[in-house]
Amino acid sequence: MDESRHLLHGIKVDGDDVEKTGGYPRRPRAGGRRRGWMVVVAAIVVLAALAVLAAIGGRHMAIHKGLDTPAAAAAASGYQAGGANEQEEGREATTTSSSSSSSIADEKKVQVEFFVMSRCPDAVKMEQTFSRVVDAVHSIMEVQLSFIARLDPNATTGAVCKHGEHECLGNIDELCALRHRLDLPSFWRFLGCVNSHVEDIGRGRDLALRCASAAGLDTAAFLACTNQGEGRALFRQSVENAVFAGVETSATVFVAGKKRCVEDGGWRECPGGYRPEDFIRDICAAYKGSAPPPSICAQYPRAV
């Protein structure tokens, strides 16, 4: 029997083994099973290390492609960073950055404020006069629109306009175009476009969208502004500005915080003149920034 081999339950054992276990074969040692688990764990560790290296490599590739911010890298990977509030803040920051017409800080620019109504013929005339002004000195001027209307919390747009609901909507279009402009000349191109069809201002989206596209504005941001709360908030604020300033006549323009001129069936209250070169002269004279002004300003003295 010592020399014999037994087959019990499908397992071959030596005779000595059978004797030592009372006739039953000994259970195989657990060492082989442990070695198997060690191989599995080692494989998992290797795969995890490879995944980390792949992620690092993707990050380097994103940087080489110019996607050097976490949000950009996430977008390239198919993920969106941040919630709705963060996206809104990012869009507003982008708008503020892109709307600057030069490297001159906004606080150093000359503030030019228009108190107008979008469907008012006098406003159209003043804005046409300022086309040459914007072309000449847009790099040192910042424009603000304050619309003349009556605040009404029950109104759809938050205010009642002299020329009806269409004018209120046209006011919102112009404010959104100003907010999401590429630069000041692009906004003035938008104004010139809509002003050439005054009777259609505020009637549907066709005219405003066509003019926004022709002026080079971000049409997606422009439409979002006009169709959502941003445009109405801008409109209410602009009406509040006009009420606070006590201005009730369209069109009135302030330069550097001072009333400069009125167009109301004719120019009046314009002690410095009302030609484009008169406004250019006054804006150049009011500019106090350290960056060089446009060359045309060399023709006029600067404020001390």
Helix content: 40-55%
* C-alpha geometry: globular
Termini Cα gap:
121 Å
* Run of helices and strands: EEHHHHEHEEEHHHHHEEEH
The biggest beta sheet reads: 5 strands, mixed
Low-confidence stretches: 1-30, 55-102
What is the beta-strand fraction? 5-15%
How many E strands?
A: 9
Spatial extent as radius of gyration: 37 Å
Strand order within the widest beta sheet: 4-3-7-8-9
Number of helices: 11
Structural class: alpha+beta
Mean pLDDT across all residues, rounded?
77
Question: Could you walk me through the main structural features you see in this protein, from its secondary elements to its overall organization?
Answer:
- This protein is an alpha+beta fold and 304 residues long.
- It contains eleven helices and nine strands.
- The protein has helices at 15-20, 31-64, 70-76, 84-98, 121-137, 165-179, 184-195, 206-215, 219-227, 229-245, 276-286; strands spanning 5-8, 11-14, 110-116, 141-147, 150-151, 159-160, 252-255, 258-263, 267-268.
- The strands form three sheets. It has a five-stranded mixed sheet with strand order 4-3-7-8-9.
- The radius of gyration is 37 Å and the shape is globular.
- Residues 1-30 and 55-102 have low confidence and may be disordered.
